[in-house]
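Known limitations

Structure tokens in this collection are predictions and should be treated as such. Users comparing against experimental data should check residue numbering before alignment. To illustrate the layout, the record for VTT domain-containing protein is reproduced below. The input appears on top and the generated tokens appear beneath it.
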Amino acid sequence: MLEQWIHDWGYAAVAVGAFAEGETVLLAAGYAAHRGLLNWGLVVLVAALAATLGDQFFYWIGRLWGARLLARFPRLAAQFPRVESLLRRYPHWAIIGVRFLYGLRIAGPIIIGMAGVTPGRFALFNAVGALIWAPLFAGLGWVFGQALSVLSGQVQRVEIGLLLLLALVFVVWWLVARRRGQRGQAPR
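Generated tokens:
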């Protein structure tokens, strides 16, 4: 049932997840791609497109309504100096990197829009960031799936070894108990 849901809705879930925060959904999609339930390349493509569109959406919210948002949401206002400082020091890297900073995935593009970054510059570096982010997190999900497969195979070998050891212990115990039983019975 879960596999059918992933097959039917997996790419839509990746798109919705990547539009906003998305790391957890993308890790899970990478794992599902490892299991053969989704196509890894399509997962990356959908995630990169949705993440780019999502950040563009939040950028325009910041550009159009930023001052009102700062007044209404003090937590967003608290992030403004941090992102603005990054933009001054590393203008292009800040646009790319804000996608990787926990807690700034939505606030970052809003604040960048408020900070006066031109739409063309934001669009270009936002897309570059998404093209780095999507294969990185989908790849981490894939690697997790691979590690789990290797670990699972090793656990199966250990299980077989433990079962054989348990059988050996049982046979030795049985032989010792039988031998003791024979010694305890003296001929009459």
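For this record: The chain has a mean pLDDT of 86. Helices lie at 2-19, 23-34, 40-72, 74-89, 91-97, 107-114, 119-184. Please report discrepancies through the issue tracker.
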